[in-house]
Each structure stands twice: as structure tokens, then as C-alpha cells.
Amino acid sequence: xxxxxIINWLKEHExxxxxxxxxxxxxxxxxxxxxxxxxLQMNVLKEAGFTIENPIGELDTAFVASFGVGKPxxxxxxxxxxxxxxxxxASAIQEEVVSDGAGHGCxxxxxxxAGVEAVIALKEMMEQExxxxxxxxxxxxxxxxxxxxxxxxxxxxxxxxDCALTWHPGNSNTVMDKSMQAMASIKFHFRGVTAHAAxxxxxxxxxxxxxxxxxxxxxxLREHVRDGVRIHYAITNGGLAPNVVPEYASVWYYIxxxxxxxxxxxxxxxxxxxxGAALMxxxxxxxxxxxxxxxxxxxxxxxxxxxxxMKKSNPIEYTDAEQDFAEKLVETIEDHLRQKGGTFGNQVxxxxxxxxxxxxxxxxxxxxxxxxxxxxxxxxxxxSISTTCAPVGVQLHSWQATASFGTSIGYKGMHxxxxxxxxxxxxxxxxxxxxxxxxxxEFRELTKDRKYTPGI
Length: 456
What we know:
α8 packs across α12 (408-429) and α8 (300-312) packs across α13. The strands form three sheets. Strands 1-2-4-3-5-14-6-12 form an eight-stranded mixed beta sheet, with helices on both faces. The chain contains 13 helices and 14 strands. The protein is globular and about 80 Å long. The chain is of the alpha/beta class. Helix content is 38%, strand content 19%. The model has no long low-confidence stretch (mean pLDDT 95). α4 (108-129) links the parallel β3 and β4. It folds into two domains: 3-179 and 295-447, Zn peptidases (Aminopeptidase, 3-Layer(aba) Sandwich), CATH 3.40.630; 182-291, 2-Layer Sandwich (Alpha-Beta Plaits), CATH 3.30.70.
């Protein structure tokens, strides 16, 4: 079986996987609740002859699907959780399917399905050729809260991999050649003393006041951090009634920076601000970490191979109807709010780019945003790409993105990603150019032999 055979097999079976992605898009579920997508993918993989391990660690919707024997062991990462408040029809007009419902505004209906598509194509090849080695698909929940893969890493399911491959829907065909940021997700809970806000305010100690004092302190901290650091928060509990001094109040922080070490230091300072706010207002404060993923470590050797195989895959071609949809969708976004260039900072051409771009990873070069793929990239060499699944100008986590990811535009990008990953894994199984040895040496240089430690 040659690469052209893999490409032809994928082409013949596109509709099957389009329907899988469509069904997941039609049934969006939030982090840790993705029972529909998880069960659907497990059933498809089980029918294809994969062995399923589920649940993984503490996560009921996490699973690993395996085929093959021995080395190398190649993992393909998938995700399937949706986002709150992004329910949307596949329309260029804002139309919710369910009021305030969930929607796939990050394209995870595509992301996971492409991985399923890729590993099943690889299994067909391995059976025909009697190829030695193992392939795995990782069904990873809760990426949107940046913790699913961390829990899976705690369970040790990535430890014996030789490499991992993944991708993300975007608005260009490119290699993920920049590092995404490390981050911490942490909630602070303040406890005060309740009292009648009018008759006895002196007897109360407002937990909400402490939250607001803390937020003021954090806002002043923004002036004294490196460029690119992000500190954002939401008050998740601010009391129940104006005439009752709140006994309890909570605030949820996301802290992002170029490296986990930098996030850790900013987190230390944020915790001190919280302690100071509690002291100023005579309240008590506790905190809990919900996610603490690493920055991603792009692997140039794997990325170059993925780039090569994107170019070997069938190119995307768009119909006049798809171009018209893209134009109408982008017209709904004010000019100054449109995403400039590709999703990951690369140069693009047209509303629906078909060109493929790649630049070598430069250590320290980051883009805003985070993913728990970072944890995996600190355990094994990890390659990643992005494909055109939405028009240029559309931001991820928007209703326009949800709309596009439920159309043929999104599905065409998904199939290109599946082909790119399948062909790359094929080369690795064939030990092309000793790629794994080179990727592992690069990984050792990037990590400097620092060991991965789960953040939660």
C-alpha cells in the first residue's frame, strides 16, 4: 500500500467521517460531559477493530483506542468538547439552535473526528502490509477548560508513546510553528461575616469587597509583567442580595504567559494579592487550581514531515457556493474586529486559503492562547498543524466559527488534516529518514531533560 492508496481510501470514505463530525456538531456538550461524542467515536473505532480503554483516570469520557503490536507507538490526539453560549445554525446569519446553548465554536467536532479518520486509514494500511508498530487515538475531553489531557497524563497513558500528532481547525493551512502559552486556572474563595447591610453594616465583613479589592490589586499588577502576559477573571459568586453583606464570594482567574515557570511566578504574586485583600478586609481566603498546562513545544522534525504530507495530500478546492458563504459570514464582522492573517499568525491569501505555509519554530516565540496539548508535548515529541476550516476574518470562539465548522468548509479542512496525520504516521512507521530519532533528540534539547509534572 502506497501513500496514494491511503489518500484514495480516505477520499472514498470521506462521507462516513463527515457524518460523524456532523452528528457531534449537532449534539454539542461541554467539558467533562461529552458522552455523545465519546460514545460515538468509541463505537466507530470498536467497529473498525480497535481495542478501547475507557474510562481513563478520573474522566468517564476519556478513552484510548489502540491497534497494532510493538514499536513505534504513535498517538493521535483528539478533542470533542464544545463551548457555552455558542449555539448557532450553519448559517451566515446569527441564529441559535438552542437559546444560550453550547456550540462547537472551536471546531472540536472536526478535531477529534479527523483523528479517528486518520487512525482507521492507518489500520487498513498496516493490515495490508503487515506493518510492525502500534497506533492509538486519544479521545481527550475538557480541552476548553485546559485540563483533560493533564488528567490523562496523570494516569500515564502518554508515557510509552514515541511521538504524538495533532491538529486544530483554523483559517489557514499551516504548521503550528509557534508555542502556545502556559496557563493557570484558579478560583479564589473568600469567606466573611454576614450582616444586615443597612441596620448593622459594622457587624459584617463582605467577602465580595475582598474579591473587588483583589481585582484592583491584580489590575495594578498588569503594569509590572512581561509583554504578552494575560490576566483575566470572572466573579462567579458575588452574593445573593444587596441588603445582605455577602458571607461568601468567589473569583475565577486565568493567568497566561510564555512558560510555566513564568506563570508560576505570576500565580505566586496573585496569591499574595488575594491574601492582602483578605487581610485588609478581615476575611479568609482559600484557592483551588483547576488547570495548569504547560506551554507547547513544537517539534520541527515532526512539523516538517507534517508540512510535507499536507502538500502530498489532495488539495482543498472550494465551490462558488462556499466562497459566497464565506463572504457573507465575514460581512457580519466589523472590519476592526476581524482576525488578521491566519489563526496562528501566518500569511494567507484570500478568504479561504488553499496555500500551505511553514516556518521553523523559534524558541521563545509564542502566540496568545493555551491548550493542554502542551502537557503532552512535554512528555513526548509532538507535531501539530492547522487547516482552513473557516474564512479569514473569523475568530475562534465566535458564532461565526460555529457556523463554519458545521459546513462543508469545515469538513474539507478536517479531511486534509486527517490525510496529513495519516501520511505522517505512515512515514514514521516506515522509519523514514530516522525521523523519530531526530525528533526525540530535538525533544531532549527543548526540555533540557526537565521532567514533566502534572499541574493538577
